[in-house]
Amino acid sequence: MSAGETTSDSIDRYSRQVRFPQLGEAGQRKLMGSRVTICGCGALGTVLANHLVRAGVGHVRIVDRDFIETHNLQRQILFDEDDVAANLPKAEAAARKLRKINSAVTIEPVVTDIDHTNILGLVADADLILDGTDNFETRYLINDAAVKLNKPWIFGGVIGSEGQSMTIRPGITPCLRCLIEDSPPPGMTPTCETAGVLGPAVAVIASFEAVEAIKLLSGAYDALNVELFMIDVWDWNFRRLKVAGLLGKVDCPCCKHHKFEWLDGELGSHTTTLCGRNAVQVAARRPEPLDFLEMARRLAPVGEVRHNAFMLKFAAEGHEFTVFPDGRAIIKGTNDIVKARTLYAQFVGS
Amino acid sequence: MPVVKIPTPLRPHANGLDSVDTTGSTVGEVLGQVFEAHPALKERLFDGTELRRFVNVYVNNEDIRYLDDLETKVEPKDEVSIIPAVAGG
């Protein structure tokens, strides 16, 4: 069976949404022949993946750099306590759960940190890119890649009880850099750690993104959101800010001048603090996968070292290290990038 | 009188207020009045004389960048909203 072709059996499972006239059978078949890349599989990403896999989007690639911890379960709906105990990466755990939900969909988990060297390969074959990230660096990378490839993407962000979302179609709507010209510097805006985040607030924004995805993939372009959608689920405040007029008005380096500063690696660091985690990720990419057995032997004097195929964990100097085969490490117990780099060099090696 | 809406993350710098009444006739004037009463807000929103690039200001639901920026006229019934970027997810 080639892409886009389906049996009558397989479309039956979608009967309740096929009966929704704005989608219909033609729209459903387009969904089934579509490919999406979901960037990030945390609170936004799990809700996005859940909706789109159940809706029958044919190929869903889920990209995430992180692993599951107990405090994720409050809002990251595809994970459970067994996943935490198994030390599974989020993308892998999500894929296992989603395959049980809908075996007719191809689910492709990718455990990696999205950066300027790999993003084009992760999104080039997708019809749509979805924002499940928790940081602006990755969002600007997605934006650059989407504009360069002339591909739509859907932005979503949430803190506390407030969220924003916008459907971005290069050349048709303003892009993210038209809307937010620069990323907030560290310490200038609240994070999930300082301000907290409510699960239902994230679910509202991710669900809104998912509806926009269904419209885009099924060709219902007239129904798309062309404004910046904002909601505060605590204050029950709902707004649509008129941003369409920014297209062409802002001297946008990205969509007006096609200068891709994030994609070209001119902007953005490769070491980042993780939202809400009191942790820093050090991304020191290596051409060959790390040898965890050798590392575990080397680190034995430091203390207990645990590892599986996906990660190696140990503690040192009051910090918990999680190291991935590609050389990345997440160092818990600090928000200080320089300190994290130092610890990395000390215990993982440069 | 034009009212300036303060977003949740900035309320601690505005004595916890969610809005401030002003008497100005442009966006720059009304924000200036807010900063007189709550000086800690200014450095978070402005870099010198310019709005920081991750903060946007709307008059009612219109972005001032396609109006007249800080010179955009405001009427007594207007609502001026400060909308910071929302990073998490």
Summarize the structure.
The complex is a heterodimer of chains A (about 350) and B (about 90). Chain A is an alpha/beta fold and about 350 residues long.
Commentary on this structure:
The complex is a heterodimer of chains A (350) and B (89). In chain A, the strands form 2 sheets. An 8-stranded mixed β-sheet of chain A has the order 3-2-1-4-5-6-7-8, with helices on both faces. Chain A is globular and about 65 Å long. Chain A has 2 domains: 8-246, Rossmann fold (3-Layer(aba) Sandwich); 271-347, TATA-Binding Protein (2-Layer Sandwich). With 350 residues, chain A is α/β, with parallel strands linked by helices. Chain A has helices at 8-12, 15-18, 24-32, 43-55, 81-85, 90-101, 119-123, 136-149, 176-179, 192-195, 199-218, 292-299, 337-348, and strands spanning 35-39, 59-64, 106-111, 128-131, 153-159, 162-168, 228-232, 237-241, 271-274, 279-282, 305-307, 312-316, 319-323, 329-332. Chain B has 89 residues and is an alpha+beta fold. Chain B has a single domain (3-84), classed as Ubiquitin-like (UB roll). Chain B is 20% helix and 26% strand. Chain B has 2 helices and 7 strands, in the order E-E-H-H-E-E-E-E-E. Chain B has helices at residues 27-37, 39-45, and strands spanning 3-5, 19-21, 46-47, 50-51, 55-59, 62-63, 79-84. Chain B has a 5-stranded mixed β-sheet with strand order 2-1-7-5-6, covered by helices on one side. In chain B, helix 1 packs across helix 2. The longest helix of chain B is centred in the middle third of the chain and has 11 residues, at 27-37. Chain B is globular and about 35 Å long. In chain B, 34% of the residues are buried.
